[in-house]
Amino acid sequence: MRNPLTKKPILLLLSLAAIFSAMFLSSAFFGEKQNSLSKNSGQAPSASHEESRNLLLENPGFEKGNDPGWRFEKNPDMAAITRDAAMTGLFGLRINDDSKSKGCSVLSEKAPVTPGTGYRLTFWARVLSEGGLSVYLRFFDANGKTPILEDGIPIPAGRPEWKQFEIALPAPKEAVSAEVRIYAYEKSIVRADLDAFSLNPFKVEIKPPWTPSYKLSPDDPTRLTEADVVGPDGLVYPDWRMAGVPGGIPAIPAVVGSSFFENLENKDITDRLMEAIERAAKHGGGAVELPAGQFYLNRSILLRESGVIVRGAGSDKTRLVFQNHIPYGEVRLFNWSGTGEKTGPGGTIVIEANPKNLVSLRVESQGRPLKERTRGANVKAWGNSYTLRIKGEELLSTPGVGRHELQVSLRYENGDRFTKALWIDVSGNPIQPAASGPEGLFIFGGAGPSGNAIPLLRSGQRGSRKIPLKNGHGLRPGDRVEIEAPVSERWNRMVGNLCIYDHFRTNYYEIVAVEEDGIVLNQPLRIDYPTEDGSFVRKAAFVERSGLEDLTIEQEVVTHDPGTPRAKGVNWYPMEDLWTNGVTSIYAWGCWVRAVKVVNAARNPIYFTRSKFCEIRDAEANGALFKGGGGTGYVGLERSFDCLMDSVVTHGMRHAPDVQWGSAGCVIRNGRFYGSDGQWHAGWTHENLFEGNLIVSNAAEKAANGGYGFGLFASGPQSTLHGPQGPRNVVYNNDIKSPSDGLHMMGGNEGWIIAYNRFRIDHGRAVYGKEKSFDHVIRGNVFVIQKAVEPLVWFESPDCTGIELTGNSFYGPVSGPVSKLAGFLSDVGAFAREEKNRILPFQEDAPRPQPPVESIFEWQRTSFSPSTPGSSSNKPGAALP
Length: 881
Known about the structure:
Blueprint: H1 8-18, H2 47-53, E1 70-74, E2 79-82, E3 92-97, E4 104-108, E5 111-112, E6 118-130, E7 133-140, E8 149-154, E9 163-170, E10 177-184, E11 190-202, E12 228-230, E13 236-238, E14 254-256, H3 270-282, E15 286-289, E16 293-297, E17 301-303, E18 308-311, E19 318-322, E20 331-335, E21 342-343, E22 348-353, E23 358-365, E24 368-374, H4 379-382, E25 387-391, E26 402-412, E27 417-426, E28 440-445, E29 448-455, E30 466-468, E31 480-485, H5 489-495, E32 505-515, E33 518-521, E34 536-541, E35 543-544, E36 547-555, E37 581-586, E38 588-589, E39 592-601, E40 606-609, E41 611-612, E42 615-617, E43 620-624, E44 634-638, E45 644-646, E46 649-651, E47 655-660, E48 667-669, E49 672-674, E50 677-682, E51 689-691, E52 694-696, H6 699-705, E53 712-714, E54 730-732, E55 735-738, E56 743-745, E57 753-755, E58 758-764, E59 767-769, E60 777-779, E61 782-788, E62 793-795, E63 804-806, E64 809-811, E65 822-824, E66 833-835, E67 838-840, H7 856-863
Parallel strand pairs: 14-15, 15-18, 16-19, 17-28, 18-36, 19-36, 21-27, 28-37, 35-38, 36-39, 37-40, 38-41, 39-42, 39-43, 40-44, 42-45, 43-46, 44-47, 45-48, 46-49, 47-50, 48-51, 49-52, 50-53, 51-54, 52-55, 53-56, 54-57, 55-58, 56-59, 57-60, 58-61, 59-62, 60-63, 61-64, 62-65, 63-66, 64-67
Antiparallel strand pairs: 1-4, 2-3, 3-11, 4-10, 5-10, 6-9, 6-11, 7-8, 7-10, 12-13, 20-22, 22-25, 23-24, 23-26, 26-27, 29-34, 30-33, 31-32, 31-34, 32-33
């Protein structure tokens, strides 16, 4: 039986993606200061210094060979101590795993440990080629055979520079020894160097990872801001009153009637529909009506004009079939500016090719290389890619202003190569700005950012509407702005972030006033925007008040060949179908999708990105052609703010509902999500609400759809492709069924509210939380667990402090009462409150809890109207019950 403390199942689930990114662990994991060997300095310590620092490992720098200190356990011919692998001193360890079936393992000699003491393993590593390597710290009891606790770090691929890595764990109470394991995966090829290992004890401190900001109480009104609303249960919630289209989705009269498409049933109406959209835009906005019937679209519909609605006769009457296909060996041009073959500064063109087993897209001009995109080792990240994007600015030097021929070279997995020509007119003058986003059948496309980034004069404070700026910024009332706090080394160290991307702390606002020392926004900030992280604002333009209504979209399946092997590491076969979303957005404001059904989208059926006040209502998504890697099979919101998903139904998704990449203030409610898990998938999502949803999955659907198997999942700091999730997400009055843990948080989570939900779990824990997961309120939930992993509520770090576990009912498991309800790794930790929890006999259909109000979202809206600048209701604690 697997020990419940062992991490291998989680690592197998997540680390295959994570090994392709740079990472390091902050020692803030246990509340201690960084030592003098900075993980980002890239400077190697001297051999003598490194040897003197190490207290427990023998021969930590391989200066004495492999004996004493190291055992080459598995396929020893793949590991060697050599001068070429030295980061410091004379020798280091070289891993040269050139087999996709064997793998390699190197173990340190076991070192004695003391239960309850923390142990920090540090080492330096670099990957020279490919990827597939992890280092583990493992603890053993007196038996010494099977680890009772282990945790590991995947070493990033494609980063040949030396980096320092760290694992810090408290020794379990049964522990008598610890060892280091260096492990190259059986199914991967990797060439890497490791050196300068160190294992040292330290005193474990039980304290939060950073200064808490979101554990708020109505008893302390001085800490409440405009961003806070006291609920009917006394909990302080985020403010969601402005989520969705302002004022609700309007009824827009038609300006282009259905007769415009007369006699076009079962024909391609792409050009006709674009003409109708242009007519509506010139009219100043209005609806384009499509008649009942089936119609075809041969390319994407890019809606860049505001106030235009495309409306069918009903989702069961009007059907648009997307039959976009690129013949094998051919290429095509897509222009995000909608200007045909013309581009220039501010524009983006896309070179497209047939995707099936595509390996490389390369563009040359006048015999000189211009740009290339090549599939690397991470096939999952490549997915079914078929595009290469080129900014207008990239064309100004080569080929330059004028009309030019581009030579496009294609290379496929079977060795086929093609060279095709495309023509492009390059202008030296700026053209209509065009933000480029995800490919899709129907795209709401705004212009995006413009002008220079304007640094904040002082930090923007959570709960404040004021953004301090120097005079001369040029912003005016009515302007829309993007505010962002870029990733910084300070922030990475604080939250333990290892992710290589930078889409974490941002939002969009409207300026309502300009003052001498800054601007005033239409809403209070949800998080801080520190000046020390380089926070800035810049102007942005959006497509506004446009919509898609009352129709069905279906992507025609071109190729699905189950007779061929699946693409490596994913749940699909190589296909010619284009890897596109159904309905998507880029810089949309107050746009909507209502009563729309999407069938067989290749990638994500309904997926809004970089949007504000948008709404998805009464929609349905049935199936996705691609699942299991590379951002595929999602329904939800990415880098979107104050958006609303209401009464959405999905079948066979990978992750749904899903929010990611900094999305904040969004509400997903009254949905039914079958065969998928709910996710805060990536990038510091914060203050989002999941409410009144049904989320149902089982083991077979998990395997088929590529989900993780948990009811709800939040990525954590160690994920180099996803990063941690942010503060105060709320799960309220949902019904969730899953094959594994009910709520699985990988860390970095502050002040979440998990209240009045029912979780039905086949096998696992009720709640699992890893590092930097603190100040949560877990109140009034029902957990029904058929086969339990004990403790039922489990946190794996002493910085998981301030957690309240109150009034929850645990039904099960089938085998009988559990011996331990809640606890911490190595018994190091404490709950702020743990009371009135009940363990009851298993009851498969245990009743759902009764919340104080059925909908906290509707309660906020009916109790308080959205606040406006200067009103008395904006004073902290005012007008709150």
